[in-house]
Amino acid sequence: MRRVVCQLDEKLAERVFRLASEMGISRSKLVRQALENLIEEHRQQRVAQMKSGYKQMAQTNLDLAEETMACSEADWESYEVKLLEGESG
Predict the structure, then answer these.
(1) Per-residue pLDDT tens for 3-50?
(2) Distance in angstroms (rounded) separating the CA atoms of residues 23 and 25
(3) Which residues contact 23 (CB under 8 A, 6 or more apart)?
(4) Whole-model pTM?
(5) Number of domains present in the structure of the chain
(6) Is 42 exposed, middle or buried (0-12, 13-18, 19+ CB in 10 A)?
(7) Residue 5 lies in a domain
(8) Closest by alpha carbon to 1, among 32, 34, 30, 39?
């Protein structure tokens, strides 16, 4: 394991000492567990944000697909002609 040194104010240090004693674990183990919990909580929040973003994009993509499907055959032919003109022009 690597050693990491950090400074705590008196009040927080006392809370850490007291809780570690109550739990019957070392202060180092308490801090490790607290950091692991914090990191996992942060990861879960990021995953939730990503899921939300994907769901929002899914609705946007569905709306665009429906809008595209509403185009007539003549609209598509006109679009293709403009694309071809752009390539040759």
Answers:
(1) 999 999 999 999 999 999 999 999 999 999 999 999 999 999 999 999
(2) 6
(3) 30
(4) 0.61
(5) 1
(6) exposed
(7) no
(8) 32
